[in-house]
Every structure is written in C-alpha cells, then in structure tokens.
C-alpha cells in the first residue's frame, strides 16, 4: 500500500469528515469501488471505498453499519454521498462500473453520473494499437500487467482472497461481519488506491493524436454501462466478459 491513510467510516461524524474531504475545491475526480455479498441488485453493498485525487485518505464507508444514512446523511454544507455520486462536476473513476451501478441504483436509488470506466479504457488501449479485442480483463490481471505493484499488494490480495472467496475456502459474508477484519479492510482499500495510477498508465498506451477520441468513446461507453444497469432485466454470466464496441 502507498502512503495513503485508510479510514473506516462507521459513524455520521466520520462521514462528515469524509464528505468534507471528497468535496474539496481541489477534487476533480474520485476513485470509487464497492464490496458486498453478491454485489448487485439481488445482494448487498457492504463497503464503499472512495479516494479523492487531491487527498491522502482512502475512505471505507461502512454501508453495513450505516445503512441508508451512508448515502442520505448531509453535512453542514448540504453534501451527501448520494449527491457526490450523482453530481456531474467531478469524474468518478471505476473499474467495471456495471455491478456497482446495478447495486447502487436498485438498492439505494443512486444514479451515477460522470463515470469513467477503466475496464473500457483498457479495451481502448488495446484496440488503439490495432489489436482485435474480444474480451474484457479483470482488475487484478490489469494491475499486474500495467503497474506490477509488488509483493505487498500480492500478499494483501492473496490473504483477502483466502478469507473471502468460496473457491479458496473463504466467504463473502465476512464483508458484513463486525468488527471488520483488518485484512478485509486492507483488501478493500488496495485496488481503489491504484485506480488513478492505472488510468494514467492506460491513457499513455494510446497514441497522443488518437487519445482524445478514444477517451471520448470511453466516457460514452461508461455512461451506457451505467444506464444498462438500470434496466429491469440485467444480463449476467459469460456474456458480460465480451468486449462490446463503444
């Protein structure tokens, strides 16, 4: 992990501090990630991780503890997490926004706005070099390929997987167990910590003269992904791995 501080937000007092940080005038973009048990409209949101590009604090918002207050609680400036996520002024950087959008909209009525999906940016980076791209790639593989974060990141990832992934003997239910295991906290924070760096790396893979056009396509594709997650019937399974044209 970098020099960023990890702060669990499980009270409205801490949420006030979080909102003050992520709505500062110097915030131009936010890195966002979610964790949950069967994270989608049919499951739960347990944690929401958020980091401002202008901040050194990764905020882990405990949705399991705070419930709807995580999104509706207003600070003295009138800001809520819902208004931040729905606002159009600040870019929200995700890696595969689809499941997160599905859960946020259907469980809490949140309509994400101004999203930038790095999974689509990764597809754009490959396609811009003339490669035929049929499938999207998961975040862990992309981080290893483009950033190579080192042994500490790998250790945290493997420890978290052993605790959480059923095929490794773990259980996603640990996201909802309190007090939250420190290893789960570290696991939840480390991906969002790298999203801005990953964005820079992926954009640099695209030729300078083509970059603006591809980024425009990524923004449009990101918006479509958010909207598709609002549909009454939302596809799951292998078809989600197909890299559609955007």
Notes on the protein architecture:
The protein has 246 residues and is of the alpha/beta class. The protein is 44% helix and 13% strand. The protein has a single domain, classed as Ribonuclease H-like superfamily/Ribonuclease H (Nucleotidyltransferase, domain 5), CATH 3.30.420.10. The radius of gyration is 17 Å and the shape is globular. Pfam families: DNA_pol_A_exo1. This is Ribonuclease H-like domain-containing protein. One of its GO terms (molecular function) is 3'-5' exonuclease activity.
- Trace the largest sheet across and list its strands: 1-4-3-2-5-6
Can you say what the CATH homologous superfamily is? Ribonuclease H-like superfamily/Ribonuclease H
Radius of gyration: 17 Å
- Provide the structure class: alpha/beta
The major beta sheet can be summarized as: 6 strands, mixed
CATH topology descriptor: Nucleotidyltransferase, domain 5
The number of helices is 11
How many individual domains?
1
Straight-line N-to-C gap: 33 Å
Number of strand elements: 6
Strand content: 5-15%
- The CATH architecture is 2-Layer Sandwich
Give the overall shape, derived from the CA principal axes.
Answer: globular
Rounded average pLDDT: 96
Q: Percentage of helical residues? A: 40-55%
The string of secondary-structure elements, in order, is EHEEEHHHEHEHHHHHH
Regions with little confidence, pLDDT below 50 for 5+ residues: none
Give the class-level CATH name: Alpha Beta
GO biological process, one term: nucleobase-containing compound metabolic process
Protein name: Ribonuclease H-like domain-containing protein
GO molecular function: 3'-5' exonuclease activity; nucleic acid binding
Domain 3'-5' exonuclease: 6-207
């Amino acid at each position: 992990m970098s020099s960023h501080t990890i702060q669990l937000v499980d009270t409205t007092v801490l949420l006030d501090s979080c909102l003050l940080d992520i709505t500062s005038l110097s915030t131009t973009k936010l890195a966002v990630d979610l964790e949950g048990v069967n994270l989608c409209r049919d499951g739960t949101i347990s944690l929401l991780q958020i980091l401002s590009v202008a901040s050194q604090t990764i905020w882990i918002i405990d949705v399991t503890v705070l419930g709807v207050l995580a999104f509706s609680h207003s600070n003295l400036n009138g800001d809520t997490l819902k208004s931040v996520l729905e606002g159009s002024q600040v870019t929200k950087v995700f890696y595969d926004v689809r499941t997160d959008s599905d859960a946020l909209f259907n469980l809490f009525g949140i309509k994400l706005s101004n999203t930038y999906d790095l999974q689509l940016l990764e597809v754009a980076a490959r396609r811009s070099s003339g490669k035929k791209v049929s499938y999207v790639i998961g975040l862990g593989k992309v981080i290893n390929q483009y950033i190579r974060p080192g042994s500490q990141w790998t250790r945290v990832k493997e420890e978290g997987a052993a605790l959480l992934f059923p095929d490794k003997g773990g259980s996603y239910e640990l996201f909802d167990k309190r007090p939250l295991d420190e290893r789960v906290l570290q696991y939840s924070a480390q991906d969002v910590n790298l999203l801005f760096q990953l964005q820079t790396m992926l954009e640099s893979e695209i030729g300078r003269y083509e970059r603006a056009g591809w980024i425009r396509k990524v923004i449009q594709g990101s918006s479509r992904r958010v909207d598709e997650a609002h549909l009454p019937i939302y596809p799951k399974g292998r078809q989600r791995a197909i890299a559609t044209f955007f």
